[in-house]
Design brief:
The structure is a homodimer. With about 450 residues, the first copy, chain A, is an alpha/beta fold. Chain A has 18 helices and 15 strands. Chain A is globular and about 60 Å long.
Chain lengths: ~450, ~450
């Protein structure tokens, strides 16, 4: 009986995060202010602690993980690396399929990997409260958990339609002691403005971000926390890939292809960046970001400076974007409905070091159900995108006869997403692909900055 | 940094289940038929495979675990033994608190530990389909998962009120390929009778059991599976306690008190019986079953022969019972709403080898929220009973200054039970305790058999 799960001891939790900037062929393009000039950390100190801003700007290859963060990581980390032998059999592929399982965290996804250090550095800076936004609830619940670990109050602005439709993510946040408000609220100017425009608005992630940022900017004891996109967030997630590398080393294997789903980019960065270090050193490994065809940022977006939020409050970032006013259809992988992408991921794609594929919704659920029936775990809809891309690679191996080693990130379980499986089984889900002219139409609406 | 989680390798999964019958001071009282005579395995062959009936009657101390079962166990086992250091700090107790975490299984509880071997032995016997019942859905989803692992069709009769109120447990079963029907159905005589009596009946576990048994008894390709109470079910769960003992050995500790919640008894048996082997050999260890005050079978029930189901279809079993027609109030720990208890657990309690405590609902949720805020994991309402009893032991240690080592079974996560947490936070849950005369009133209604 060969092992299904490759485990590491708690003492083997990596001691440093990996900063991919150190291995990029070109330095990352800086964020720009409304004046077109690079934005320094001083502009951001009102809502982020200096320690995180330093990480955001750092070019150091290794950033030490504080002991207190490693201690909290130890509640669920190292996460298992699993061999999907039963899935291989079902597919009849000569490929070996491995997955790193991040659903073992208390919040059920990879998000606490960055929520915990963000809470830690904020507490260290004397901050008492974190304000943040959440759509489907994955990030908000991770921040609620992390805040509880470091005695911080957490205030979550949850998009109203999700607040009403996903009450159990809300109860999860409340169980961890967070305050959760249906956004827009009357507590902020941004919220009041939104309600004045439309008293019955279902809310949006853009409005919720504006509320959380406004609250953080207006209160000295309160900071803001973001769950993806930014460099320091992507870096915290590298704990995933660093562990996976140790686990492969333990069994004397190395992946030919590394796959993760990609919305804001933190999940993909987390698994893939540590392997990119090897690739930069000459190793032959493909790094594949899987996104939905209904929000095809990396595969069909424009590489341009754009705002990170819908309202244009953030600095401009050079990234693949569908336009900050892009509204993707209501696919069930809420974590992948983002108009832009991590600037680091975008630049690496632009420079040809990583690849991107887009997969349609129905095929992702087909893959997720196939995975659940073979491997037991019911995946989050976001993770189903990685599974689909991995299954497609495995089927290509069946056709070619190549016994490749495939690795994907099972970023979370689907326990709070069963309604989307219901809709899949009931035949109520659809595929969606934008006509080219709609993608093109975003171009003239992008902010005018020389890229 | 000392370890939070004590892990074992997949190769350390126990090779045998432990049969407590071998260490009981007296042989277990046999189940009786309507004629008052012991029921032999021949009567049960219509719905159970011989291998399981042999285990049900066995007095062998060690029963080998088939390789194929160990292989499936390896998808999540060995489960972690965790030190609840943050909870100890919150309580200010000198006690060391450990918990065995069974929520890591695909279905999210300890139930797959027996669903998997039950599926295996049925497949081995040439059975194609399993019929079973489920209330809240924990058992049904575990059986759906296990059936999928061995290529068995699974048909689940789900109590109608749960089918309507807990759609996500249903979707989970469907994701694993099971057929789920709201019980009562028109597919069985038992169901049709129930509907004739009341076309708008919300259903009951008693009716659902009758439907599942009827289906199994009337079809040669179909067997029945039960998730608790029976000896072989309790035995399969001993994998939990056997692993825990190995894990304690690894860190050179041994528990003074072992605690688990108790409904039908399989969860308690699983953790406690392997420690009872040591107790029988003279070791000083307390084994505590925690049940709800609203269904106080072990603490206030009658030790008598009674039916296992509400309708009186099963053999008579000698156990603590509140009467097979007992209807407990709708507490949220659905897995603990059983009128009787495992005959093995009952006999061991009667003979003074184990203890039982009853804990009120509100105090269990208070304990569960305290645990979630300290340790991250949101527990199932059933598990909250064990946590409550453990916290009470830890507080007693604070008062006495004794640095005891406490172990409890965190039998499952609460991801599908957040509605009950919502009701707790909203102040909508209540405590309930039966007046003594209501407990006494059950006595004359028990079947007349010399115990």
């Amino acid at each position: 009986m060969t092992a299904t799960r490759i485990l590491l001891d708690e003492s083997e939790i990596p001691t440093h995060w990996y900063n991919v900037v150190a291995d990029m062929p070109n330095p990352p393009a800086p964020p720009l202010g409304p004046d077109g000039q690079p934005v320094g950390p001083d502009k951001m100190l009102a809502i982020f602690p200096m320690a995180l801003l330093e990480q955001e700007m750092s070019a150091e290859r290794w950033i030490p993980i504080p002991d207190k963060v490693r201690e909290i990581y130890g509640m669920w980390r190292p996460s298992p690396l699993c061999r999907a032998k039963r899935l291989e059999e079902v597919l009849g592929t000569p490929a070996k399929i491995y997955y790193k399982y991040e659903g073992v965290s208390p919040a059920g996804s990879h998000k606490p990997n960055t929520a915990v250090p963000q809470a830690y550095y904020n507490q260290l800076a004397g901050i008492k409260r974190i304000s943040t936004e959440t759509g489907a609830g994955q990030w908000g619940s991770s921040m609620a958990f992390a805040g509880q670990m470091f005695g911080l109050e957490v205030r979550v602005f949850m998009v109203k339609v999700s607040y009403d439709q996903k009450p159990f993510r809300r109860s999860m946040m409340q169980t961890w002691g967070a305050e959760v408000f249906a956004s827009p609220t009357t507590m902020t100017q941004a919220g009041r403005d939104a309600l004045a425009r439309d008293p019955n608005t279902p809310g949006s992630l853009g409005i919720a971000i504006s509320e959380a940022v406004e609250e953080a900017a207006s209160r000295a004891d309160t900071n803001y926390a973001l769950g993806s996109v930014l460099n320091h967030v992507c870096m915290h997630q590298t704990i995933v890939g660093l562990e996976a590398k140790k686990q492969f080393e333990k069994i004397g294997e190395y992946p030919d292809v590394v796959i993760a789903c990609c919305g804001g980019g933190s999940n993909f960065s987390g698994l893939a960046f540590p392997f990119l270090a090897d690739k930069a050193a000459g190793k032959n490994v493909r790094l594949v970001a899987a996104e939905p065809t209904s929000c095809p940022t990396l595969t069909r977006g424009h590489y341009a400076y754009d705002f990170g939020d819908a309202s244009g409050y953030t600095p401009l970032m050079l990234m693949y974007t569908l336009g900050h006013d892009f509204v993707p259809p209501g696919i069930h992988a809420g974590g992948l409905r983002y108009h832009g992408d991590s600037p680091l991921v975008s630049q690496l794609l632009k420079e040809g070091l990583i690849e991107a594929v887009a997969v349609p919704q129905l095929a992702t659920f087909e893959a997720g159900v196939m995975f659940a029936r073979a491997e037991g775990i019911i995946p989050a809809p976001e993770s189903n995108h990685a599974i689909r891309a991995c299954i497609d690679e495995a089927l290509a191996c069946r056709a070619s006869g190549e016994p490749k080693t495939l690795l994907f990130n099972l970023s979370g379980h689907g326990h709070f997403d069963m309604a989307s499986y219901d809709r899949y089984f009931a035949g109520e889900l659809e595929d969606f692909e934008y006509p080219e002219h709609e993608i093109e139409a975003a171009l003239p609406r992008l902010p005018k900055v020389a890229a």
